[in-house]
Structure formats: C-alpha cells, structure tokens
Write a structure and sequence with these properties.
single chain, six-stranded parallel β-sheet
C-alpha cells in the first residue's frame, strides 16, 4: 500500500513542482511508496527531469493514492488552494515572503485557512512558522521542514583557483521577471551601476526565471540614461535552464548578489552557498535559517510595508504586511566585498559547509520522523 500521496499538479513548471519531485524522489529512494495526483506534465518539467525522474513521475501518477499521509502546498493560487486532502494525516507545505505588523483585522482567505484548517502545517523556515503563529496558528499545528538544493551542484563542485586581478569577475543575480521588486533586481542593477560604472573587469549576470525579460531590459535602459557613456557589463539570461545548466551557472560565477525584500526560504541562495560562493544578501526572512553574519555578506535593511509584488497583485493582503527594504549604500559596500575582500574564500567555504546540512535526504528523514510522531 502506498504510504505518501502528493496532491500537487505538474501542469505548471514552478518551484512547487520542482520541490515536490525532489522530495518524492528522496522518499522513494528511502523505500517509502509514493503516489502523485495525476495531471498534465508541463514540457519544462519533462525537459528539466532525467529519464529516471520522468519514469518515476509517470509511475507515481498511475498509483492509487494512499489515504495514510497526504501532502499539498498551501497557497493562495486557486488551483493549489482548492486541492483537497483526504488522508488520515494531512500535511501542507507553507512559505511566506512577508510578515504582518498587525493582527486586529480578518486575514485574507489563504492565511485564515492555513491557521484554521485541520492539516498539520510544514513551514519551510522558522520565519514562515513564526508568521503563522503570530497570526493565531496553534504552535503544535506547525513544524519546520527545511528544503534542500540541487544535488548536481555538490557533484560538480571543485574548488576554483583564486582569480588574478586580470580575469573578469562574474557576479550572479537570480531573479524572476514576474516578481522583480521582491528579488531586489532594481537595487542590484542600481548598486552595480553606481559601484562598477567604469570597471570592465566586473560583470553582472542576471538570470531570469520568469518569462518577461523585457521588464529587466527596461530597467537597464532607464538606468543607462542616468549614467550616460559609463556603462558597466550587464548581461540578462532569459532562456530556460535545466538543473545541470543552472549548476554550471553557479559554479562558473565568482559571487552572488541577492538584495531581496522578502523570501520564505530561498533555494536559489542556498544553492549559491552550496556552490561555495561569497553571497551578499539581505539577512532577513526564511534564509536566516541557514545564513548568518559568519557565512555571508549581510545587507542592512529597514522593515517597511510590502510594495507592489506578485503577492499583492493576486491577493488582498490585510494586517499591514511588512518586509525588508535593503539599504542601497549597504548593497554597494557588500557588493564590492564579495569580489575584493581577502576573507571572501573563507566565508564562502563556511557557506558551503552550512549548505551541506540542508540536503534532500535530511528533509526526507525529518519529514518521516515528523509523520511518525504525529500519527
């Protein structure tokens, strides 16, 4: 009899599908029988998966669902929100990019449901867990189950020779053109232009995980007007990358810049840690479960009301949602340090050691322990 059923659709290629596949595969390897809700499979999911993963997905979708443990994602998107769980123990993964400054109004339907439904909530970070508890969720109803990173990064990793001054240094910024403001892409571009406007030895590579790269180009055109002839090297990579290509992208970079405003966990940053890169990042939200002042270059910030982002477009958020506003001067200072600080290799090594604790095997084992305790 199947033990764990994932009620997660694969018709969209997104982090929910990607994380579900990584976790289901890990449980399968441990010997836990898996089933997955049948759905169309997005072409990008198929392209991004190995032949073995595609075979497993087809097999799991053809397996009768277990009524023992059932898992879904808690999200305000209706296709996710409306999915029903019918297990003896129901579990919902939960991640949030912002916190609430008040709790005297009624919450939106998503938060209200997460707080009041009968599922046990699997928060991906302490931050996400604390947001729910402050919203009125009983502490015993929510546990933290952190996520893992792309294992190809560890497999392909080899220590880089420390680059000499002559070589061009590549700074990587991971974003999504549907949610640029949340990822702080505006701040990354602004700080990079201000700091390296006349330096041909440093380049900024912006990897877009969305499908709207024109918005990024528009940002660049606007900022170029302010700087006139002085143009630093900035490249936008909009095309779809497989997991192997993404691993190569991290491993060929010299540093990562992540001046985000809100993150529930940020696998992208954990992957930069796993690649042994110095990371300049906002030390806020979910990533503080693995990032601290000893293993990254923290960007100073203020807590401010959430600005326009993907979440505010699709959800009427109440109770004064707040997140981080990184300080541009701090972004500039840390941006320079990630390519010039003599200690950056030691800091990056600490980041790599930290990332190794956050692998999918650890996630799978923690989830199994938790299910047995709750059952």
């Amino acid at each position: 009899m199947t033990m764990v059923h994932f009620n997660v659709g694969f018709q969209n290629f997104n982090s929910f599908a990607d994380i579900t596949l990584s976790l289901a595969k890990t449980l399968d390897k441990i010997g836990i029988p898996i089933s997955v809700e049948p759905s169309e499979i997005a072409s990008h999911v198929t392209r991004n998966s190995t032949a073995e993963e595609n075979h497993l997905l087809a097999k799991w979708m053809n397996t009768a669902p277990s009524d023992l443990f059932q898992i879904k994602w808690s999200h305000y998107w209706k296709p996710y929100f409306l999915k029903e769980l019918n297990g003896h123990l129901n579990l919902e993964f939960f991640a949030i990019n912002y916190e609430f400054a008040r709790n005297d109004e009624n919450y939106d339907y998503w938060i209200y449901d997460a707080v009041n439904n009968s599922s046990h909530i699997l928060a991906v970070s302490e931050y996400s867990k604390n947001v729910l508890i402050k919203a009125g969720c009983p502490a015993q109803k929510v546990s933290v189950v952190p996520l893992g990173f792309n294992p190809l990064i560890s497999q392909l990793y080899s220590p880089k020779p420390h680059k000499t001054q002559k070589n061009i240094k590549s700074i990587l910024h991971m974003t999504n053109s549907y949610d640029l403001y949340r990822f702080g892409t505006d701040l990354a571009i602004q700080a990079f232009y201000q700091e390296f406007k006349d330096d041909a030895n440093v380049e900024l590579i912006i990897k877009d995980g969305g499908k709207n790269p024109d918005v990024i180009v528009e940002h660049l055109v606007n900022i170029e007007k302010q700087f006139g002839k002085l143009k630093p090297k900035v490249y936008v990579k909009p095309k779809f990358f497989t997991k192997a290509e993404l691993a190569d992208l991290y491993l060929s970079a010299d540093a990562v810049l992540a001046p985000f405003r809100g993150e529930g966990f940020a696998i992208k940053i954990l992957e930069a840690f796993a690649a042994g890169l110095p990371v300049a990042m906002t030390l806020y939200g979910g990533p503080t479960d693995y990032a601290n002042t000893t293993n990254c270059y923290p960007i100073a910030y203020d807590l401010i009301p959430v600005g326009e982002c993907y979440d505010t477009q699709y959800l009427k958020i109440r109770n004064a949602p707040h997140w981080a506003e990184p300080n541009v001067q701090s972004v500039r200072e840390q941006l320079r340090k990630i390519i010039e600080d003599p200690m950056r290799f030691e800091i990056a090594q600490k980041a790599r050691e930290t990332a190794d604790l956050f692998n999918w095997e650890a996630t799978g084992k923690k989830l199994l322990r938790l299910m047995r305790e709750l059952f």
